Amino acid sequence: MTDKKMADPKASQNGSHAARNDSATDAQGVQFLDIQKSDSERLRVYVKEYRGRTYIDIRVWYLADGGEYRPSGKGITVRPALAAGLIQGIDLAARSFDPKEMS
Question: Transcriptional coactivator p15 (PC4) C-terminal domain spans which residues (predicted)?
Fold first, then answer.
């Protein structure tokens, strides 16, 4: 990863689904988002490096038997160049719903 300053994305908070949008570095990379998806799952966004390339990892983490969260196979890893298109697609999909149905 480069030493460039990364933008801090704004996370949405929805009711009891607490979101964290400050960045933190750990063994997985730099974490930018942590949203509670259910009692036993969290959705996390990381920027990580693999084989000398930088990627954005959007993944569901599950609560393991030991009480700590671990990454699941549910998620995607994309190059940063694809982020704008992915965000646009998610935004369009979200707008396609009737706001009254969103609860």
Answer: 39-87
pTM confidence score = 0.70
Q: Which helix (H) or strand (E) holds 28?
A: none
Instruction: Please give the torsion angle defined by the CA atoms of residues 26, 29, 31 and 34, in that order, rounded to the nearest 10 degrees.
Output: -80
| Total count of domains within the chain | 1
The answer to whether residue 2 sits within a structural domain is: no
Closest CA to 42 of 23, 68, 22: 68
Task: Give how far Cα 80 sits from Cα of 26, 58, 96, Å.
Answer: 19, 12, 25
pLDDT along the chain (103 residues), means of 10: 39 45 77 96 96 97 96 97 97 88 67
DSSP tag of 51: T
For residue 4, the surrounding DSSP H or E stretch is none
